[in-house]
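pasting for the record
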Amino acid sequence: MATSSPSAIRTLLLVTAVAIGAAAVITVAYEFSRERIATNERARVLANLRGVTATLTDSERLTPTQLRLSVIGEPADPNSVFAMRDENDAVHALIYSVSAPDGYNGAINLLVGVSLSGTVTGVRVVSHRETPGLGDAIETGKSNWLEQFTGKGLKDPQHWAVEKDNGPFDSLTGATVTPRAVVAAINRALTFHAQHSEKLLTDAEHGGDETDD
């Protein structure tokens, strides 16, 4: 029976050591990257949440707290709600994370800020797959189209629709399906707020899961 030469054993040990070292480096790099990615994601979420309440006085001092949604029941209902609190724990607005499933190329995910009086404080699109150069004008960085909803509520206007459907809201040239979906989603958020804000604000008084310090 042949025995391994000392040089072969040394080579095997060297290869094993290199493999273990490489695995350790990859593991450390992954853990570092994962933490950095998570930190960046939290910062992005916080910026979006504060962005939809930027029209409120002293909005930069407000901190989001995610609420427990015991009132959820319909597929079109928000998938999460955040209370924007000041340093005295008073709630100034609620933010609804809603989805417009009927976008041109798929679901459009939005954050809709609503004041305690029931008017829109701001809207942000957080993800979509709409056509570049047409439907992507719903992005805040590409146009001010979303600003037309600020200050609006269920009673003003009473008919939530784009101009092509005899409503007051501007359409996007060549991309009517996209604004229709967004308008409907904002309207659903306002309707949910009108129906459940009292319960949500009561829940907010009993705390929630803070998103950021």
